[in-house]
Batch of 2 targets.
Target 1
Amino acid sequence: MTLASPGTPHGPDFSDRSFLFVLGSSRPDGNSELLARAAAARLPADVPRRWVDLNRLDLPDFQDGRHEVSGPPTHATERALLEATVEATDVVIVSPLYWYSFSAQTKRYLDYWSGWLNVPGSDFKERMAGGTLWGVTALAHSEHVVADGLVTSLSNSAAYLRMRFGGVLTGTGSRPGRVRADEGAMTRAETFFHREAPLALFPYEAVETAA
C-alpha cells in the first residue's frame, strides 16, 4: 500500500490507486452493497477495483495467537485476503449496521487485522500506513447519527495504522433495494470517493493538534 497523492484543487488524483471493496452483508445485493456500487461507479474507469464478498469465503473464525510463536497464514483464503488488503491503496468496508456496529462477517475480517500485525515478514502496519480507509453502511434508521459507533471504530482503526480516513457513506434502507429511495444518500455517493481523506487521528490527538 502506498500513500495516495493529495490531488489538485480541481479534484483527487486517482493515479496509482486501487480500491478493495470488502462486502460484509449476510445477503447478496444488500443495501450497503448497492450504495457502495453507486459510489464506485463514479470512480474513473481506469481505477482498479476489486470486490470481495466475505459471506462467500471459506474463512475460519479468528483465533488470537498474538502472544504465541506463529508463522505465515496457512489457510489459503486468509493468505489471499491478506494480500488483497495490503495491495490496495484504498480499502472500503461495506457493512450494514447491525446493533449499531459491524456485521459479524465484517468484524471477523477486522479481527484478522490484529493477527496480521504479527505475521513474520508481512509488515502489515507499515504497508497499510498512508493508504485510505472508507466505510459504507445502510441502516434502518432515518437518523444516521446512530451509526456513529461504526464510524468511530473505523476512524480509530485508521488512526492506529496511520491511514487516511475518508469517512462513512450512510444510507437508509432495510428492505432489499430500499436505499435507492434515499435520494440524499445516492447523491452523496456520486462524489463520496472524490473528497479529501485526511490523515486519521485519535480523538486525543485531534485535541492536541488543535491546541
Note: Residues 2-10 have pLDDT under 50 and may be disordered.
Target 2
Amino acid sequence: MAPTAPTAPTATTATRHLTVLYDADCPLCVHIRHWLLGQRWLVPLRLIPAGSFEAQRRYPRLDHAATLREITVIGDAGQVWSGTDAFIVCLWALAEHRPKANWLATPAGRPFARAAMYTASAWRQAVRSEGTGAEGEAEAESPACGDHCSAPG
C-alpha cells in the first residue's frame, strides 16, 4: 500500500477509527501504546503489534517489515501514514493533543515533529544496540533494553 498525503485526516472525511501498528518488542513503543490507551480519544484507536498474525491478516498488502521499523497508522478508509506522519495522526486522534497535531502538520510545526521522531528513533536504536550479542544479533531471551525501561503497569 502506498502512503497517502502527509496530513491529518480532514473534516470532509469522517474517520471512524485508526489502527496503530507498533513494535511489541520495543519498550518505548509499548510505553507509548500504554500512554495512548490512557488518553481520551476523539477517534478510536486499535493498537495491534506490527508484523503480528492479526496485522498481516487485516492488511495483507502492507509491507510488514517496514511497520516494524517505524510506527504505522492505517485509517478506516485505507489511508496509511508512517513515521512522522503517523506520529501526527496519533496525536490528532487525541482530545488533548489535536490542536498540537494540527500545528505539527504545518510547515512551521513539521520540523518539531521530525525532531521528536528522530529522537525516538535514536533512543530506540541505542536501546536495541544494548540488547545485542557480540555478532550484533539480538539475544532472543532478553528484551531490547533489559530491565531499565519497563512499560507502565
Note: The chain has a mean pLDDT of 81.
